[in-house]
């Protein structure tokens, strides 16, 4: 088990695009796209190793001291184990089954301008890299689109091998699933119309309707801060299954603001020039690849992949998908290398 405390901050950005186009695309993504994408013949359910799977335990929620700054994971390793062996033994070509988002612009989304409607984005690039390393084929993946609130359930039931879906590492989740080392750094921010009097995550949210994704860290934070008095009790929370639903609600005037990861909010602002990020990030968070707690060998393998990906691949993916919204300097978004904070116990 390994521990590292990390601290960082994230700046905000504005957006470009057209509101009408953004609304239409958002509604199309939410209502019309299928729930799964298989890039091959094998569309079956995932198993997580069977008997003899390598076992271990990351930090339980009670042991985690700071959900915004602490991650515990296992040492990187290129070796196979029972979980990886089971993945390789599946029939058919598409062997790795991964839970992703298909509605997050530039992270995991179906490009309507792509004739094949393949999933694209920063998270999807990472999935292809993992498949290439483990199976020797970047396309040896069956994607399963899952809502925010079902990410942990999908891992615990074994319907996916891993989740790569802008999933923040935090104390509560460490009690339910295993995480890789972080692959991205961000923070919670407020997204609202440019004309709104809302100034950020503060008293200007009084009597406002805010939207969060059910089961997200934003939802947890807003609920807790209302209860503790850090936010006005008059703040009204609207919860939706997927984060993009919040942008649609905002565009329709059903809510006054969206609270989500700044990295996601920046991409949403790029779809609608009438909205912007309000105020600085008020948390520091890290995205990790989530896996079943019994899949220790898979976690270690992904950590090794992240070591290599950070050195060769991460920046190219950032340049392709995120530089337009987060800026060309990726310093604020790139977490430390796993080698810098994984300490052998």
Description:
By secondary structure, the chain is α/β, with parallel strands linked by helices. The termini are close together. The chain has helices at 19-32, 82-88, 122-135, 151-157, 171-174, 217-228, 243-251, 262-270, 296-311, 314-321, 323-326, 338-341, and strands at 2-5, 36-38, 70-73, 96-100, 103-104, 108-110, 119-120, 141-145, 162-163, 178-186, 188-193, 209-213, 236-240, 257-261, 275-278, 285-291. Strands 2-8-4-9-16-10 form a six-stranded mixed beta sheet, with helices on both faces. Strands 13-12-14-11-15 form a five-stranded mixed beta sheet, with helices on both faces. The model is unreliable at 1-62 (pLDDT under 50). Helix 1 (19-32) packs across helix 7 and helix 3 packs across helix 9.
Spans where pLDDT lies below 50 across 5 or more residues:
1-62
Overall mean pLDDT stands at 81
Radius of gyration: 19 Å
Helix content: 25-40%
Q: Report how far the terminal alpha carbons are from each other.
A: 6 Å
Structure annotation, total helices: 12
Encode the helix/strand succession as letters: EHEEHEEEEHEHEHEEEHEHEHEEHHHH
Strand content: 15-25%
Instruction: Please summarize the sheet with the most strands.
Output: 6 strands, mixed
Q: Name the shape in a single word.
A: globular
Secondary-structure content class = alpha/beta
Q: Total strand count, please?
A: 16
């Amino acid at each position: 088990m390994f521990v590292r405390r990390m601290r960082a901050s994230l700046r905000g950005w504005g957006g470009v695009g057209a509101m009408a186009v953004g609304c239409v695309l958002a509604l199309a993504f939410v209502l019309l796209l299928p729930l799964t994408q298989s890039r091959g013949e094998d569309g079956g359910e995932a198993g997580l190793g069977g008997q003899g799977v390598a076992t271990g335990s990351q930090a339980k929620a009670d042991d985690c001291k700071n959900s915004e700054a602490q991650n515990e994971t296992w040492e990187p390793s290129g070796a196979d184990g029972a979980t990886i062996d089971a993945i390789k033994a599946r029939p058919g070509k598409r062997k790795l089954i991964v839970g992703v988002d298909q509605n997050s612009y530039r992270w995991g989304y179906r490009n309507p301008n792509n004739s094949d409607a393949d999933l694209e984005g920063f998270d999807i690039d990472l999935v292809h890299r993992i498949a290439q390393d483990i199976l020797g084929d970047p396309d040896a993946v069956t994607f399963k689109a899952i809502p925010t609130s079902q990410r942990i359930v999908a891992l615990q039931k074994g319907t996916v091998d891993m989740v790569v879906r802008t999933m923040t590492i935090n104390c509560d989740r460490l009690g339910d699933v295993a995480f890789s080392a972080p692959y991205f750094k961000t923070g919670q921010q407020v997204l609202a119309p440019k004309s709104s009097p809302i100034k950020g995550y503060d008293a200007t949210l009084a009597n406002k309707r805010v939207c969060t994704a059910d089961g997200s860290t934003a939802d947890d934070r807003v609920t807790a801060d209302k209860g503790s008095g850090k936010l006005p009790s008059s703040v009204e929370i609207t919860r939706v299954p997927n984060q993009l639903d919040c942008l649609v609600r905002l565009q329709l005037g059903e809510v006054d603001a969206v609270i989500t990861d700044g990295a996601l909010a920046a991409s949403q602002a790029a779809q609608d020039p009438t909205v912007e990020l309000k105020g600085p990030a008020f948390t520091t968070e890290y995205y990790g690849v989530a896996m079943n707690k019994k899949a220790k060998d898979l976690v270690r393998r992904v950590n090794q992949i992240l070591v290599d990906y950070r050195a060769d691949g991460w920046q190219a993916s950032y340049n392709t998908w995120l530089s337009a919204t987060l800026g060309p300097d990726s310093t604020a978004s790139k977490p430390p290398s796993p080698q810098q904070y994984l300490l052998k116990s």
